[in-house]
Each structure stands twice: as C-alpha cells, then as structure tokens.
UniProtKB/TrEMBL annotation:
Function: Involved in the oxidation of myo-inositol (MI) and D-chiro-inositol (DCI) to 2-keto-myo-inositol (2KMI or 2-inosose) and 1-keto-D-chiro-inositol (1KDCI), respectively.
Domain Gfo/Idh/MocA-like oxidoreductase N-terminal: 3-125
Gfo/Idh/MocA-like oxidoreductase C-terminal domain: residues covered: 137-323
UniProt keyword Oxidoreductase present: yes
Catalytic class of the enzyme: oxidoreductase
Signal peptide: none
Catalytic activity: 1D-chiro-inositol + NAD(+) = scyllo-inosine + NADH + H(+); myo-inositol + NAD(+) = scyllo-inosose + NADH + H(+)
Name recorded for this polypeptide: Inositol 2-dehydrogenase/D-chiro-inositol 3-dehydrogenase
EC number: 1.1.1.18, 1.1.1.369
Protein keywords: NAD, Oxidoreductase
Pathway connected to this protein: Polyol metabolism; myo-inositol degradation into acetyl-CoA; acetyl-CoA from myo-inositol: step 1/7
Species per Swiss-Prot/TrEMBL record: Ectobacillus funiculus
Subunit and interaction comment: Homotetramer.
Family: Belongs to the Gfo/Idh/MocA family.
Amino acid sequence: MTLKIGVIGTGAIGREHIKRITNNLSGGKIVAVTDVNQESAKSAVEQFSLDAAIYPDDKALVADANVDAVLVTSWGPAHEQSVLAAIEAGKYVFCEKPLATTAEGCMRIVEAEMKHGKRLVQVGFMRRYDSGYVQLKEAIDSNYIGEPLMIRCVHRNPEVGDNYTTDMEINDTLVHEIDVLHWLINDDYKFVQVAFPKKTKRAAAHLQDPQLITLETNSGIIITAEVFVNCKYGYDIQCEVIGEEGVAYLPEFSGIATRKEAKFGTSILMDWKQRFIAAYDKELQDFMDSIKNTGEPNGPTSWDGYIAAVTADACVKSQQTGEKELVVLADKPDFYKN
Ligand code: NAI
Ligand code: NAD
Ligand code: ISE
C-alpha cells in the first residue's frame, strides 16, 4: 500500500520532506501540495517533478479523496487549523513542531483525536529517532550511569533571520530539548526558569540572545539548557547526562579529522538539515510503516505536543517575569498511555 500524502507548506522543511519521501523513503507518494504562497507550491511541484494537485488552501487539500495523510510544514501559527481539518476528515497527520503555538490549541487537537477514536497524529520531534539520543536513552534505561541527577545541554544555531523573536528561542528552538529530554528520562517538568546572560552583539535589537533555561523535573533532576542562535561558528547540539554512577554524552556529529598547518581538527556542521538528516528519514519512514502495519502512527503523539506547549508557555512566562514558573499539566488520558 502506498500512503498518498498532501503537503501543507512548501518552504524549507516542506521541501526537505518532499525530497526524502519522493527520492529516499519507501511507501509514500506526494499527491497534493498547497502553500499560502501559491508560487511556492507550484515551484515545489516543478522542483521535484511531482505528479501532484496544487490546491489554494489546506481545507481544499484535506478534502481531496485521493489524500490519505497530510504533512503540515507551514509556519507554526498555521498548524492547528490544518491538523484539526485533517482529523475532522479522518486523515493521518504528520505535523512539524510545534503542534500548535498554545497549550489550548494542542488540547483542542488532543480532544479531536480522542473523539475520532484512534491515533492519527505524529509530531515532528525527530530527535527521538537520532541514533545518539537513542544510545543515551539505552544508557539511562539500562541503569549504566545510575540514576540521572543533572543534565547539561546546548542548542546553538550559527544565525537566525530578522523575523526570529525572543519567544522563539523557546517555542521554535528549545522545544526540541523540551521534548527529547522528558522522553529520555521518562519524567515530567515541574518548574522552569529563564535567565538572560549578556547579549551578543550579533543579535537583532529586538532579540534576547543567548538564553539560559533551567528545567526541574518531578523527581528533582535539574537540567540547564543554553540556547544561542547567533553563535556564528556552527550548528551545535550537545547533551551530557550526569548520573549517580557515571556520565553519558551525546555523540558529536562525526566527520573526518585532519592534521594541517600545526592544527588537529574536525568540522562542525552549519545547518540543522544535515545534523538530523538520518533522524528525519527515520521519523517519516516510521510514520508510513506504522500506519501500514498497525493502522496508527507510532511516533511522538499529540499529548507530547501538548506537554511541549505547556512547558514552553511556562518558559515564555519566565522570560517575562524572570521568576521560577510552575509547569501545570492536565492528567494524561488513558488514550495516550501505551
Ligand atoms: P518556511 O518559512 O521555510 O516554510 C513555511 C512555509 O509554509 C512557507 O512556504 C509558507 O508560505 C507556508 N505557509 C505558511 N502558512 C501557511 C498556511 N496557512 N497554509 C499553507 N502554507 C503556509 O519554514 P520552515 O523552516 O520550513 O519551517 C516550517 C515548520 O517546520 C515550522 O513549524 C518549523 O518549526 C518546522 N521546522 C522543524 C524543523 C525540525 O528540525 N524538526 C526544522 C525546521 C523547521
Ligand atoms: P518556511 O518559512 O521555510 O516554510 C513555511 C512555509 O509554509 C512557507 O512556504 C509558507 O508560505 C507556508 N505557509 C505558512 N502558512 C501557511 C498556511 N497557512 N498554509 C499553507 N502554507 C503556509 O519554514 P520552515 O523552516 O520550513 O519551517 C516550517 C515548520 O517546520 C515550522 O513549524 C518549523 O518549526 C518546522 N521546522 C522543524 C525543524 C526540525 O528540525 N524538526 C526544522 C525546521 C523547521
Ligand atoms: C528550527 O525550526 C528547528 O527546528 C531546528 O532544529 C532548530 O535548531 C532551530 O533553532 C529552529 O529555528
């Protein structure tokens, strides 16, 4: 069975996903596209020589009987409407993060999915498919480093555009750590606090960069996460889990090492597209395979999207108050318990 996919949002990651589904993965075919910028939708069809219908908006695309599943890769504030339309039509959805930009929006999606009666939605938290994070999880789950006590992580981008704002350091960037870390340690967040260190001269006037976020879990694990999106030198993701019996590190992205002109070195990537390329492949392959084999997607759920949104909201509140803020989650419905 080939899963026939409609794409909503043919920008940067929309095209990356179209390319991998069309050229690298098996079991899926792009049959429809839309973008608020219709020229972008047309040019994506041309760029990848797709045999795909071009629709004026998400509703028309979702209504196409030929579309089995929807890939939502528009900008964050547009996600909720497209995901709800797909659930209403009983279609599968792979939605890039964030699931919705508010906790209330995520809850509306959770409720719509539960009303539908089976899982339809997978959220694009691809780090859970990255082999480095999978190895870290194995080290924790097998008790190799004992009880985790603290985690230190770093999320650095070389630069961002002018439309990137202070809250996006949380909603757009830290959101990956928010998701992958609670999965890694199987714990939920209780308190968060955001501090603003000295600002880099490279950040736009309106942007507070870097930021230092502290997350405290129910069991008392303390996580410190640095987000620095104008670090200039590269795309750098680090994670160190300090346990009672030892310490585990996320592997560095491996490239060749060189010795030249009295220096020994390896390169650092510049682009998120490359750093998690294998994880993006795996998450989408898993989405298509699990629908084919079990009738439901298997990856991060709408509930994971909700947890990320509630935690991000508390961080954004702390950006404004400077205080430690409580993370208040609703009780997890049985529907999302494995
Ligand atoms: P982008 O700005 O390159 O592309 C977004 C596209 O969506 C644009 O073509 C825009 O015209 C279109 N669009 C916006 N609103 C729309 C609507 N209502 N209906 C249809 N099309 C609409 O953005 P980019 O970088 O591709 O990001 C898209 C999404 O992917 C974001 O949610 C972002 O957070 C996520 N993302 C995830 C990454 C990951 O590592 N998982 C990496 C990069 C982006
Ligand atoms: P982008 O701006 O390059 O592309 C977004 C596209 O969506 C644009 O073409 C825009 O015209 C279109 N669009 C916006 N609103 C729309 C709507 N209502 N209907 C249809 N099209 C609409 O952005 P991007 O970098 O591709 O990011 C897109 C999404 O992917 C974001 O949610 C982002 O957070 C996510 N993202 C995830 C990762 C990741 O590592 N998982 C990386 C990058 C982006
Ligand atoms: C982008 O949207 C992503 O998801 C990338 O993974 C992240 O590193 C970047 O900061 C975001 O803007």
